[in-house]
Amino acid sequence: MALEDEQEALLPGSGDGLPGSAAQRKMPAICDPSRFAHRIVVLMLMCFLGFGSYFCYDNPSALQTQVQLDMKVNTADFMQLYAFYSWPNVVLCFFGGFLIDRVFGIRLGTIIFSLFVCAGQVIFATGALFNAFWLMEAGRLVFGIGGESLAVAQNTYAVSWFKGKELNLVFGLQLSMARVGSTVNMNVMGLVYQWIKDAMGSAGYTTLGVTLMIGAVTCLFSLTCALVLGYLDKRAEKILNKEQGKTGEVIKLTDVKDFSLSLWLIFLICVCYYVAIFPFIGLGKVFFIEKFKFSAAQAGAINSVVYIISAPLSPVFGFMVDRIGKNIIWVMCAVVTTLTAHLMLAFTLWNPWIAMSLLGVSYSLLACALWPMVAFVVPEHQLGTAYGFMQSIQNLGLAIIAILAGVILDSRGYLFLEVFFSACICMAIVAVVMLYFLNHLRGKFQICKTVSNTIL
Fold first, then answer.
1. Of 217, 248, 279, which residue is a domain's last?
2. Mind listing the pLDDT tens digit for each residue in 13-28?
3. Which of 19, 41, 232, 362 has its CA 20 to 30 Å from the CA of residue 172?
4. Same domain, 226 and 279
């Protein structure tokens, strides 16, 4: 009875002119929007909503050697594929929530963003089929327009359906499924390319294009989930008087002038940390092949370790940080551990599984500890602007560093690139130390338990 009362509190209402409980008793539990079984179906659709986006995001990384050889581009040009994904999100991070709340609505918005992801991947694959690298870059740009905004829509659905104590777990499960998509990509796309190569009798840009087009199937699968989820949400709205989900974001760019030094330090930590993670993963497969003499399959497997570890650990670390608090301490541990991992990869020949495992643990911990800190240092009415700005400068940093990393690798090699990544992490450490002492002296930053956990 307690569980049923909680479910009715979450999704109250009635349908078909009958009292809600009477109408719901006429349908199976899996078809009743107020019942747990139905919400499990919705949760599965939410989790798979971003699967295609995350699977295809790292297609270039999984096929780095093939892209460079078949398209005849250097590493700097190759990294443009990641930069073009990030460029539109320098701006769209501010407006994705606005478009969902005020223009499209959550259901139509999710479908539109899913269509952008599908179209972007198809254009990307078509560019390879016709040996047009500029078209591949255009495809990544279109893909980026949908990718980040789709994540906003996914989180909005989660809040709409799972308000209350379940929400942290739902966010954790969504992040875990996203990392599963990235992991499958790293370990499968190389094999798909080899299979297509054997079937066609030779490698080349056509083989690459067919491989990427097969990857687009995952985006179509996610689009199907968006359509079904939209139907179920509309149905629940009719049956239970359930309102469309809202992001709750109020974006006011004028709030930027009121941001505190503590918040700017959090922004600096975010940028300096993530530019040493995602560009590294984008270039990691060839790094493991060249330095550690791994096969392509082995290199792809180890390059996916960060995502493999993140999938199960993100919900665990989210729960731990919720219970223990002390976010700054956890962020410091994550950043120092990441620096240790990069130094091991740069200056030792130790088994790279050790360093990559450390990287996976630290990446998961930082995601759970850093992002909730924004809520400690800004008023609630500025949260939408603060998070939008944080994502915006993160994407700006990723776009710039992706290009710079390619240039460094072409001119100086992997050792110098690892030193560069380590320097970025050192800047993040300095920012964490400054943040700690600044807020310790002011006595305004409460390193305490969070009431909610924002997942990256």
1. 248
2. 444 444 455 555 566 7
3. 232
4. no
